[in-house]
Amino acid sequence: MVLENWKRRTIIKETFPLLTALAAVGVISGLILEAYKKTLIQYPQLLLLIPVMIGMGGNLGAILASRTSTALHLGIIELTPKNKALRNNIIATIILATIIFTLTGILTHPISQILNIGNQLSITQITLISLTSGIIISLITIALTIISTYLSYTHGLDPDNTVLPIVTSLSDIAGILIFYLTALYFI
């Protein structure tokens, strides 16, 4: 069964329809950005955070997805809340998110000064926006990762073929929406 999952035909069969659907869904991220164009123009510091929010949320999910699917294939992890390895991976993801998004917020303020794009937001506001939205995005990404890994695995699909595109695409959409709502709250 393991060798079957490594055949090109199997990978394409499992991945192509999924990637096609997710590409269509990805347009939603652009529509969300368009919806809050005025806010971005008014607070250009937020523009510095968008790539980080989108990228890091998906990256953290991709790391968790890779570790989880590998552990499933090796038989060393079960997708249950009682599983210590799964819990440790989730906790590590949350710790990484906390550190990364705090540093991102702190560094955004001086970078915006260097780039002379304006500092309408204080370092506290920008850090709270980054940290709060980053943690929420990470929690959503963790849930998406566990659910999509479980569904792929129980339906006989290789999570290595399906979970990463699902997690990264849906994290982009959730990330933009959560970032926007969090920014509005702290502005």
Q: What is the typical, i.e. mean, pLDDT? A: 86
What is the overall number of helices? Answer: 7
The computed structural class is mainly alpha
What name goes with the CATH superfamily?
A: SLC41 divalent cation transporters, integral membrane domain
Proportion of helical residues: over 70%
How many strand elements?
0
Distance between the termini: 53 Å
Instruction: Provide the low-confidence segments as ranges.
Output: none
Element-by-element helix/strand order: HHHHHHH
Q: Using the 3D structure, state the CATH architecture.
A: Orthogonal Bundle
How large a portion of the residues is in β-strands, by DSSP E? under 5%
CATH class label:
Mainly Alpha
Radius of gyration, taken over Cα atoms and rounded to an integer in Å: 18 Å
Shape designation: globular
- State the domain count: 1
Most strands sheet: none
Under CATH, the topology can be stated as: Tetracycline Repressor, domain 2
Topology (SSEs and partners):
Layout (H helix, E strand, L loop, with lengths): L1 H4 L2 H28 L1 H6 L2 H30 L9 H31 L8 H32 L4 H28 L1
Helix pairs in contact: 2-7, 4-5, 4-6, 4-7, 5-6, 6-7
